[in-house]
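Continuing the batch. This is chain 6 of the set; chains 1 through 5 are on the previous pages. Same settings as before, nothing changed between runs. Recording input and output for traceability.
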Amino acid sequence: MQGHPGGDAHTRYLIELSFLPPGSRWLDMGAGDGQALEILEEEGFSAVGIDLSPRSLRVERGDFLRTPYETGSFDGVLSQCSFYVSGNVPLALTEAARLLRKGGKLVFSDVTEDVVVLLNQVRAAGFAVRHLEDLTDQWKQHYLEALWREEVSCPPVKGKISYVLFVCERM
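Output for chain 6:
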């Protein structure tokens, strides 16, 4: 399944919810094809992206669970549909917190098997949640369309899945 629910409009919405001013420095954790980097730059931000399997020359090859970047070197961190598939959501959140300056924003959307557990993991990593939105219906539609196009390579996990959007501030 390529992309994420909502496409570019969703990416722009996440960026808007950060309330970061143009010129802020962003990292896209799980940047894939680099589309979010293009959007960030169009909006006047400085942006870099990292991914285990980059699909663009704009995206650096690397593990976002253990990045080469200095502590506090970003104003914003963006991640879409990446933390869950990393296999270690708490470590992804901890790394995002390390990379952000105090007051920096983490904006992400992802699937989760338990929203309360994810909320607690976000707080344990040093973030205050400023906005939380349930977009499960939008994700279901996206997933069904991917099934129809035969783009899904693995079935969803068993049980209830939610797709949520978080805006967090590094404390």
